[in-house]
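Notebook entry, structure prediction.
Reason for the run: the old model in the group folder had no record of what sequence produced it. Starting over properly, with the input documented here first.
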Amino acid sequence: MKKVLIIGSCTVDITVPLPKLPASAGSVNSLPHKFSLGGCAFNVARVLHLLKVDHLHCTSIGSGMYGEFALKELNREGITPFRVSSAPHGACICLVEKCGERSFIAYHGVEYTFDSSWLKDIDLSSFDSVYICGIEIEEESGDKIITFLENNRNLQIFFSPGPRVSFIPKDRVERILALNPIIHVSESELFSLVDSNSLEDGVGKLFKKSNNDIIVTLVSKGALLYKDEEMIFKESYKTNVVDTTGAGDCHIGAYISYLTMGLSKEEALDKANYLASTVVSHEGPALVL
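New structure, fully documented this time:
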Protein backbone atom coordinates (compact mmCIF):
# COMPACT_ATOMS: atom_id res chain seq x y z
CA MET A 1 0.00 0.00 0.00
CA LYS A 2 1.71 3.19 -1.17
CA LYS A 3 1.47 6.60 0.48
CA VAL A 4 -0.76 9.57 -0.27
CA LEU A 5 0.79 13.01 -0.77
CA ILE A 6 -1.31 15.99 0.31
CA ILE A 7 -0.36 19.48 -0.82
CA GLY A 8 -2.04 22.46 0.80
CA SER A 9 -2.67 24.59 3.82
CA CYS A 10 -3.11 23.96 7.52
CA THR A 11 -5.03 27.01 8.65
CA VAL A 12 -6.26 28.32 11.98
CA ASP A 13 -10.04 28.47 11.84
CA ILE A 14 -11.90 30.92 14.06
CA THR A 15 -15.49 29.69 14.11
CA VAL A 16 -18.08 32.37 14.89
CA PRO A 17 -21.65 31.04 15.34
CA LEU A 18 -24.29 33.58 14.27
CA PRO A 19 -28.10 33.56 14.05
CA LYS A 20 -27.61 35.05 10.55
CA LEU A 21 -25.08 37.18 8.69
CA PRO A 22 -25.46 40.91 9.42
CA ALA A 23 -26.30 43.30 6.60
CA SER A 24 -23.78 45.98 5.66
CA ALA A 25 -23.28 48.36 8.63
CA GLY A 26 -25.43 46.01 10.72
CA SER A 27 -24.74 44.37 14.08
CA VAL A 28 -25.36 40.88 15.43
CA ASN A 29 -24.38 39.07 18.62
CA SER A 30 -22.56 35.75 18.30
CA LEU A 31 -22.11 32.72 20.51
CA PRO A 32 -18.59 32.04 21.88
CA HIS A 33 -15.85 31.72 19.24
CA LYS A 34 -13.92 28.52 18.75
CA PHE A 35 -10.30 28.21 17.54
CA SER A 36 -9.33 25.03 15.69
CA LEU A 37 -7.08 23.73 12.94
CA GLY A 38 -8.58 23.70 9.47
CA GLY A 39 -7.89 24.29 5.81
CA CYS A 40 -9.06 21.95 3.06
CA ALA A 41 -5.77 20.07 2.81
CA PHE A 42 -5.37 19.68 6.58
CA ASN A 43 -8.97 18.50 6.93
CA VAL A 44 -8.19 15.81 4.36
CA ALA A 45 -4.88 14.92 6.03
CA ARG A 46 -6.57 14.64 9.42
CA VAL A 47 -8.99 12.02 8.04
CA LEU A 48 -6.07 9.96 6.70
CA HIS A 49 -4.29 10.38 10.05
CA LEU A 50 -7.32 9.16 12.02
CA LEU A 51 -7.89 6.23 9.63
CA LYS A 52 -4.18 5.36 9.86
CA VAL A 53 -3.49 5.74 6.14
CA ASP A 54 0.19 6.41 5.39
CA HIS A 55 0.54 9.92 4.01
CA LEU A 56 2.62 13.10 3.92
CA HIS A 57 1.04 16.52 4.30
CA CYS A 58 3.27 19.04 2.53
CA THR A 59 2.51 22.37 4.22
CA SER A 60 4.26 25.15 6.14
CA ILE A 61 3.53 26.30 9.67
CA GLY A 62 4.47 29.94 10.14
CA SER A 63 5.15 32.40 12.95
CA GLY A 64 2.99 34.65 15.09
CA MET A 65 0.05 33.81 17.35
CA TYR A 66 -1.63 31.70 14.67
CA GLY A 67 1.53 29.71 13.94
CA GLU A 68 2.06 29.10 17.65
CA PHE A 69 -1.52 27.87 17.99
CA ALA A 70 -1.12 25.57 14.96
CA LEU A 71 2.07 24.00 16.34
CA LYS A 72 0.48 23.43 19.74
CA GLU A 73 -2.61 21.79 18.21
CA LEU A 74 -0.59 19.60 15.85
CA ASN A 75 1.44 18.40 18.81
CA ARG A 76 -1.76 17.69 20.75
CA GLU A 77 -3.08 15.58 17.86
CA GLY A 78 0.21 13.71 17.51
CA ILE A 79 1.03 15.17 14.10
CA THR A 80 4.58 16.23 13.21
CA PRO A 81 4.65 19.43 11.09
CA PHE A 82 6.27 18.96 7.68
CA ARG A 83 7.92 22.39 7.59
CA VAL A 84 8.20 25.31 10.03
CA SER A 85 8.80 28.80 8.66
CA SER A 86 9.58 32.22 10.13
CA ALA A 87 7.05 33.85 7.76
CA PRO A 88 3.65 34.82 9.24
CA HIS A 89 0.90 32.21 9.53
CA GLY A 90 -2.63 33.19 8.53
CA ALA A 91 -6.14 32.48 9.78
CA CYS A 92 -9.68 32.01 8.51
CA ILE A 93 -12.79 33.40 10.19
CA CYS A 94 -15.70 31.00 9.61
CA LEU A 95 -19.08 32.65 10.06
CA VAL A 96 -21.58 29.85 10.70
CA GLU A 97 -25.28 30.66 10.54
CA LYS A 98 -27.96 28.87 12.53
CA CYS A 99 -28.99 26.89 9.44
CA GLY A 100 -25.45 25.45 9.23
CA GLU A 101 -24.32 27.45 6.20
CA ARG A 102 -20.93 29.09 6.44
CA SER A 103 -19.09 32.10 5.01
CA PHE A 104 -15.35 32.73 5.19
CA ILE A 105 -13.06 35.71 5.76
CA ALA A 106 -9.49 34.58 5.14
CA TYR A 107 -6.02 36.01 5.68
CA HIS A 108 -3.50 33.86 3.82
CA GLY A 109 0.00 33.44 5.20
CA VAL A 110 2.87 31.07 4.54
CA GLU A 111 0.53 28.08 4.83
CA TYR A 112 -0.72 28.82 1.30
CA THR A 113 2.69 28.67 -0.35
CA PHE A 114 4.49 25.80 -2.07
CA ASP A 115 7.88 25.02 -3.57
CA SER A 116 8.86 21.65 -5.02
CA SER A 117 12.31 21.97 -3.43
CA TRP A 118 10.67 21.13 -0.11
CA LEU A 119 10.17 17.59 -1.44
CA LYS A 120 13.70 17.08 -2.84
CA ASP A 121 14.66 14.68 -0.03
CA ILE A 122 11.39 12.73 -0.21
CA ASP A 123 11.28 9.39 -2.06
CA LEU A 124 8.33 10.10 -4.34
CA SER A 125 8.40 6.53 -5.70
CA SER A 126 6.77 5.47 -2.41
CA PHE A 127 3.66 7.53 -3.27
CA ASP A 128 1.00 6.69 -5.83
CA SER A 129 -1.52 9.53 -5.35
CA VAL A 130 -1.69 13.21 -4.50
CA TYR A 131 -4.47 15.48 -3.28
CA ILE A 132 -4.70 19.14 -4.27
CA CYS A 133 -7.42 21.76 -3.83
CA GLY A 134 -8.37 24.81 -5.80
CA ILE A 135 -7.62 27.46 -3.23
CA GLU A 136 -3.87 26.69 -3.39
CA ILE A 137 -3.97 26.57 -7.20
CA GLU A 138 -5.47 30.06 -7.16
CA GLU A 139 -2.52 31.38 -5.13
CA GLU A 140 0.70 32.79 -6.60
CA SER A 141 2.55 29.50 -6.10
CA GLY A 142 -0.29 27.50 -7.66
CA ASP A 143 1.63 27.36 -10.91
CA LYS A 144 4.48 25.63 -9.05
CA ILE A 145 2.08 22.94 -7.81
CA ILE A 146 0.88 22.22 -11.33
CA THR A 147 4.45 22.08 -12.65
CA PHE A 148 5.30 19.59 -9.88
CA LEU A 149 2.34 17.43 -10.94
CA GLU A 150 3.33 17.63 -14.60
CA ASN A 151 6.80 16.42 -13.64
CA ASN A 152 5.41 13.50 -11.59
CA ARG A 153 2.82 11.91 -13.85
CA ASN A 154 2.99 8.64 -11.91
CA LEU A 155 0.91 10.25 -9.14
CA GLN A 156 -2.87 9.86 -9.47
CA ILE A 157 -4.30 13.32 -8.75
CA PHE A 158 -7.37 13.89 -6.58
CA PHE A 159 -8.54 17.45 -7.29
CA SER A 160 -11.11 19.39 -5.26
CA PRO A 161 -11.62 22.74 -7.04
CA GLY A 162 -13.62 24.17 -4.13
CA PRO A 163 -16.17 26.99 -3.98
CA ARG A 164 -13.70 29.56 -5.40
CA VAL A 165 -13.21 27.60 -8.62
CA SER A 166 -14.28 30.61 -10.72
CA PHE A 167 -11.29 32.56 -9.29
CA ILE A 168 -8.72 30.01 -10.50
CA PRO A 169 -7.03 31.12 -13.75
CA LYS A 170 -8.62 29.09 -16.56
CA ASP A 171 -5.28 28.06 -18.02
CA ARG A 172 -4.33 26.46 -14.69
CA VAL A 173 -7.61 24.51 -14.56
CA GLU A 174 -7.03 23.28 -18.11
CA ARG A 175 -3.49 22.15 -17.25
CA ILE A 176 -4.81 20.15 -14.29
CA LEU A 177 -7.64 18.58 -16.31
CA ALA A 178 -5.07 17.50 -18.90
CA LEU A 179 -3.42 15.39 -16.16
CA ASN A 180 -6.59 13.23 -15.84
CA PRO A 181 -7.41 13.94 -12.18
CA ILE A 182 -10.16 12.30 -10.17
CA ILE A 183 -12.38 15.31 -9.48
CA HIS A 184 -14.39 15.94 -6.31
CA VAL A 185 -16.97 18.76 -6.52
CA SER A 186 -20.27 19.98 -5.18
CA GLU A 187 -23.09 20.42 -7.68
CA SER A 188 -22.60 24.20 -7.83
CA GLU A 189 -18.83 23.76 -8.32
CA LEU A 190 -19.52 21.36 -11.20
CA PHE A 191 -21.63 24.00 -12.95
CA SER A 192 -18.85 26.54 -12.42
CA LEU A 193 -16.41 24.23 -14.20
CA VAL A 194 -18.62 23.47 -17.20
CA ASP A 195 -21.40 25.33 -18.99
CA SER A 196 -24.36 23.29 -17.81
CA ASN A 197 -27.28 23.31 -15.38
CA SER A 198 -27.98 19.58 -15.58
CA LEU A 199 -26.15 17.09 -13.39
CA GLU A 200 -25.99 14.36 -16.02
CA ASP A 201 -24.95 16.77 -18.76
CA GLY A 202 -22.43 18.48 -16.47
CA VAL A 203 -20.55 15.34 -15.45
CA GLY A 204 -20.56 14.18 -19.06
CA LYS A 205 -18.97 17.42 -20.23
CA LEU A 206 -16.41 17.43 -17.43
CA PHE A 207 -15.51 13.80 -18.11
CA LYS A 208 -14.65 14.70 -21.70
CA LYS A 209 -12.07 17.16 -20.33
CA SER A 210 -10.62 15.06 -17.49
CA ASN A 211 -11.19 11.50 -18.74
CA ASN A 212 -11.38 10.14 -15.20
CA ASP A 213 -13.82 9.56 -12.34
CA ILE A 214 -15.92 12.44 -11.02
CA ILE A 215 -17.52 12.60 -7.57
CA VAL A 216 -20.35 15.09 -7.00
CA THR A 217 -21.61 15.72 -3.47
CA LEU A 218 -25.33 16.52 -3.36
CA VAL A 219 -25.71 17.88 0.20
CA SER A 220 -28.46 15.97 2.06
CA LYS A 221 -29.25 13.73 -0.93
CA GLY A 222 -25.95 11.88 -0.98
CA ALA A 223 -23.18 11.68 -3.57
CA LEU A 224 -22.75 10.67 -7.18
CA LEU A 225 -19.84 8.77 -8.71
CA TYR A 226 -19.44 9.07 -12.48
CA LYS A 227 -17.11 6.38 -13.81
CA ASP A 228 -16.82 4.68 -17.18
CA GLU A 229 -19.79 6.82 -18.35
CA GLU A 230 -21.92 5.24 -15.59
CA MET A 231 -23.65 7.20 -12.81
CA ILE A 232 -23.60 5.52 -9.37
CA PHE A 233 -25.56 7.15 -6.54
CA LYS A 234 -25.15 6.58 -2.80
CA GLU A 235 -27.64 8.10 -0.38
CA SER A 236 -26.56 10.26 2.54
CA TYR A 237 -26.89 9.31 6.20
CA LYS A 238 -29.46 11.28 8.16
CA THR A 239 -28.06 13.62 10.79
CA ASN A 240 -28.76 16.88 12.57
CA VAL A 241 -26.84 19.53 10.61
CA VAL A 242 -25.00 21.97 12.90
CA ASP A 243 -22.04 23.18 10.81
CA THR A 244 -21.17 22.18 7.23
CA THR A 245 -17.55 23.41 7.48
CA GLY A 246 -15.16 20.70 6.33
CA ALA A 247 -17.84 18.24 5.17
CA GLY A 248 -16.55 18.09 1.60
CA ASP A 249 -12.96 17.79 2.81
CA CYS A 250 -13.86 14.90 5.07
CA HIS A 251 -15.75 13.27 2.20
CA ILE A 252 -12.82 13.26 -0.22
CA GLY A 253 -10.37 12.38 2.56
CA ALA A 254 -12.46 9.35 3.48
CA TYR A 255 -12.88 8.35 -0.16
CA ILE A 256 -9.12 8.44 -0.75
CA SER A 257 -8.50 6.55 2.50
CA TYR A 258 -10.88 3.69 1.75
CA LEU A 259 -9.65 3.35 -1.83
CA THR A 260 -6.10 3.14 -0.46
CA MET A 261 -7.27 0.41 1.93
CA GLY A 262 -8.49 -1.61 -1.04
CA LEU A 263 -12.25 -1.04 -0.89
CA SER A 264 -14.24 -0.69 -4.11
CA LYS A 265 -15.16 2.77 -5.35
CA GLU A 266 -18.80 2.20 -4.42
CA GLU A 267 -17.91 1.07 -0.88
CA ALA A 268 -15.53 4.00 -0.46
CA LEU A 269 -18.23 6.44 -1.56
CA ASP A 270 -20.75 5.03 0.92
CA LYS A 271 -18.29 5.20 3.81
CA ALA A 272 -17.32 8.74 2.79
CA ASN A 273 -21.00 9.73 2.98
CA TYR A 274 -21.19 8.34 6.50
CA LEU A 275 -18.10 10.11 7.82
CA ALA A 276 -19.17 13.41 6.22
CA SER A 277 -22.51 13.11 8.03
CA THR A 278 -20.69 12.92 11.37
CA VAL A 279 -18.67 16.08 10.62
CA VAL A 280 -21.74 18.27 9.95
CA SER A 281 -23.33 17.15 13.23
CA HIS A 282 -21.02 19.32 15.37
CA GLU A 283 -19.20 22.68 15.21
CA GLY A 284 -15.91 22.86 13.34
CA PRO A 285 -14.34 20.83 10.52
CA ALA A 286 -12.73 18.06 12.57
CA LEU A 287 -13.66 14.41 12.12
CA VAL A 288 -14.26 12.72 15.47
CA LEU A 289 -14.12 8.92 15.49
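Summary: DSSP finds nine helices and 14 strands in the chain.
The old model has been moved to the deprecated folder.
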